[in-house]
Amino acid sequence: MTPFTTLTGIAAPMPLVNIDTDMIIPKQYLKTIQRTGLGRALFDELRYDRNGNEIPDFVLNMPQYRNAQIIVAGDNFGCGSSREHAAWALLDFGIRCVISTSFADIFYGNCFKNGILPVVLPQAAVDHLMEDARRGANARITVDLAAQSVTASDGTAFAFEIDPFRKHCLLNGLDDIGLTMQKAAAIDAFEARAAAARPWV
Amino acid sequence: MTAPRTLYDKIWDDHVVHRDEDGTCLLYIDRHLVHEVTSPQAFEGLRMAGRKVRSPERTIAVPDHNVPTTAGRDKHIDNDESRLQVEVLDRNAREFGLNYYPVSDVRQGIVHIVGPEQGWTLPGMTVVCGDSHTATHGAFGALAHGIGTSEVEHVLATQTLIQKKSKNMKVEVTGRLPAGVTAKDITLSIIGRTGTAGGTGHVIEYCGEAIRSLSMEGRMTVCNMAIEGGARAGLIAPDETTFDYVRGRPHAPKGAMWEAALDYWRTLRTDEGAHFDKVVTLDAAEIAPVVTWGTSPEDVLPITGVVPDPESFAGGKVAAARRSLDYMGLTPGTKLTDIAIDAVFIGSCTNGRIEDLRAAAAVLKGRRLAPGVRGMVVPGSGLVRLQAEEEGLAQIFVDAGFEWRLAGCSMCLGMNPDQLAPGERCAATSNRNFEGRQGYRGRTHLMSPAMAAAAGVTGRLTDVRELMAETV
Hints:
The structure holds two protein chains of two kinds. Chain A is α/β, with parallel strands linked by helices.
């Protein structure tokens, strides 16, 4: 996994609330057996017409947002299906950070497994950053994971909370399966205890 | 004397393998359900790292999302990508020695229907699957939730998950359900009240007389949609209804082991005075048969209502509601019962069990689909299908003009050929009305099986109570 440290980039504004993972990547792209190559399918039904032509007024099709690395989104981003393809598609497109007032739990977790930083901020802060996002490359946003801050183009900084373990893994690009396998003895011991206490399981 | 604990607290405590200072826990997973769509990358990851499946005996694999629901699918699947995913699952299940129900097996079906049916899901367990509707298994008093593919790989390799504990939320439904009101109406009404993010960060325990009086099928319907309210998991404390359902299932404990399990299961209830971070109470008497009007499961109204005015909402929901109505092709003020439909879908992990088919068949007996309306019934498993045929339900569906399909997820998410055409409007017993969910530009109204059947008969959204008051 690519570590996430700091990022200064263009943010795309997506103020719609409840953007679900079906919207982020529709079902027809879940038939893949790979993780890569899904960037083209990101927001497919918003981004292309039925013939596969780009819909010009969709935000990521606009020239100023084609290289966006951040999305500033409405409440409850990533709700619905658990499909990690949503995170894979965002990453493959080049999105490394999503900022919103709230995220759905499963999507939020999936981001961390893929080097994407989901940032939760209060409504006023998201509104402020949404204004920056509307100005495209004229108002770049800086995200600093170590410092847990997002800085708007006018220098206003917003602090955000993040789980220390997830922060550590993201900063260092750690594979958490490897970390857990170091605890194999504890898992063995648990299994022995559980087999005695609940042998029917 | 320990502090009073919730049901969630108890299951959690019994599964903590290791706790870090910051509260991050390694949680043991008793059952891991696997399907063809969210697992290929996880197995590939294992192979690339030279890892094994730690506990194949705790891992259950079944293809459901992608499979066609028409005859001959065990011989050949036309769509190349779907076929490849089903073949890859087959290879992985055999290579790693998993418990496996291929499409050729009569026990195949939707993973969340197969698990309970085969007795894999038991009270007090932790159950995960790369599918958000894993919440279904919470109906047994099991801590069950959806995970992403990276977590699928983590569970395959270690039989654990790295987790922080969620908050406790109680949803109490007091009193008795009025006639014509079902588990689906309860769960949709709760989401209508709390919103799709109301349960975010929480595990919900459903309780109260109306919940207690539900069958296991109904309880699974309620817990299934916990995720639509933002909660990763929903729970219902196990009781005699639960034990009666589990007893005698192929993988349920037997003999002395059954008695020992019962003793433990009876302790799985929230202690008096335990703390909930959030409490929501609904009066069952005030729940009506409901339908959704928009493109979020929180867009719920009683069937007696009218399409709302987007301006009646606040904040970002105003723009979202405007967009929803545009997508759904609806005008504010229209009576919900004036909305004409093109299709009926009865099935899914929400409403694909025998009780659901009985409820729909009770409405359809002696009636027919309205002219021009197509209907599809997709049983949740091969065994549900068989039982429905034995009970004569299948014949009622066929006589009413429905297609009687093989088991799978089907038109709930439209990954297989079962999809809506652009602009088609569907009365669906599934769980999501998102844009494009059932097919590109398709329009979904969520409701109970009885309500979907009633809509099929009249060709428009219908109050099933009124239809049933008429004599056939």
